[in-house]
UniProtKB/TrEMBL annotation:
The gene is URM1. Its main location: cytoplasm. It comes from Pichia membranifaciens NRRL Y-2026. Gene3D superfamilies: 3.10.20.30. GO terms for molecular function: protein homodimerization activity; protein tag activity; sulfur carrier activity. Acts as a sulfur carrier required for 2-thiolation of mcm(5)S(2)U at tRNA wobble positions of cytosolic tRNA(Lys), tRNA(Glu) and tRNA(Gln). Serves as sulfur donor in tRNA 2-thiolation reaction by being thiocarboxylated (-COSH) at its C-terminus by the MOCS3 homolog UBA4. The sulfur is then transferred to tRNA to form 2-thiolation of mcm(5)S(2)U. Prior mcm(5) tRNA modification by the elongator complex is required for 2-thiolation. Also acts as a ubiquitin-like protein (UBL) that is covalently conjugated via an isopeptide bond to lysine residues of target proteins such as AHP1. The keyword Transcription does not apply. InterPro entries: Beta-grasp_dom_sf, Mopterin_synth/thiamin_S_b, Urm1. Pathway: tRNA modification; 5-methoxycarbonylmethyl-2-thiouridine-tRNA biosynthesis. GO terms for biological process: cell budding; cellular response to oxidative stress; invasive growth in response to glucose limitation; protein urmylation; tRNA wobble position uridine thiolation. This is Ubiquitin-related modifier 1. The lineage of its organism: Eukaryota, Fungi, Dikarya, Ascomycota, Saccharomycotina.
Amino acid sequence: MVAVKVEFLGGLDQVFGGVRNTKCVVQPRNEDNDEVTIRDLIDHLAEKMITNDKDMDMFIQEGTVRPGILVLVNDTDWELEDKEECVLDDGDLVSFTSTLHGG
């Protein structure tokens, strides 16, 4: 298990009950592996923190973070870190920023 800091920016905090910053203790999905990945964090956030099931589509699409949400791990784009398979360590900062805007 790892403890990470999580930020929800760009209005995404509304999907998470108005929470902008939080700390999460995340367990690995795979019992045979003690590494915690971003996929584990995404599952944890969806299960434990999304306050309204109707908001699930604002965060997750086809089993991953929906397009239009920038994901950074310690200020590095997750696409450079193997996306969902990026292994998290204690104290990591994971930021989710919505780039979608109404108008």
